[in-house]
Amino acid sequence: MIPDLPLAELARRYNNDETAPDWSQTLLPRWQRDGASLRSQAGGARDLAYGPKPRNRYDLFAPPGRAPDAGWPTFVFIHGGYWQELSKDDWSAIAAPFVRHGMAAAILGYTLCPENTVRGIAAEIVAAIAHLWHHAAELGVDRERLSLAGHSAGGHLTACCLSEDWTRSQLPATPFVRAAAISGIFDLEPLVPIYLNDALKLTRDEALAMSPAYRERRVQCEFIAAVGGAELPEFLRQNRLIGQRWSDVAEWEIPGLNHFTIVDQLTRDDTALFERVAEGLRI
User: Fold this and answer.
1) pLDDT tens-digit profile of 206-222?
2) How far apart are CA 51 and CA 58, in angstroms?
3) Which domains does the chain have, with CATH numbers?
4) Torsion on CA atoms 13, 90, 108, 103, rounded to nearest 10
5) Per-residue DSSP letters for 20-68?
6) Which of 84, 118, 165, 203: CA 20 to 30 A from 192?
7) 104-108 and 222-228: which strand pairing?
8) What pTM, to 2 d.p., does this model score?
């Protein structure tokens, strides 16, 4: 559904730099700096290839030492950037608190638009998770305890994962113990007439087909849809929408947080969002 708004106002309601204009000069450099340190120090493996394209890679961060016999409980994260910006390396810092608490974390990369399509990105994410699951034993991962989360476009892709038939990839129908979409976009139709579609190239029909709000939910793990109370109105509406369209959704609106400070909650281990996402993984 496209809200009944002038196009300029609709576009403004998806321009997250308006609510946090300095995030790329403050938060992002800190995440990149902390992530670079973690990549050089943590256990696990970097740039694991799950497909043939340059960005078909993921990083696995693990505690030092030998993995438990069953493998490390593992958090899987899908980054945002409106399907057209940033990379897995910008988000490595999110793995740090999980590693400190005896868990592994996989940060997924994918091919960006316009080189790719939204549908193509969703397929790459499925391939990445299937690779992690099928190679779990050699990677020291407990594939019975995977938790999934994504931010912004990654929130959309997380919800797409909950509408996926995982048995087609030889995984269980519900391969996650819980999932969280943070500041997710669940209805892509409003993006069709605005500037974001210059790279996405969505038709209205394809936007609706790739909108989790209009797809069947197949994965029956606990699902949290979280949004910051200081986010733009469209993100608040999108979060309510998935709660209305799908059953058993835990809707969170966290006061005072904008589109970027909310994801920063996952770089720390003293927040309710970290605790809820990690809860099912604790040894």
Assistant:
1) 999 999 999 999 999 99
2) 10
3) 7-281 (3.40.50.1820)
4) -110
5) -TTTTTTHHHHHHHHHHHHHHHSEEEEEEESSSSTT-EEEEEE-SSPPP
6) 165
7) unpaired
8) 0.96
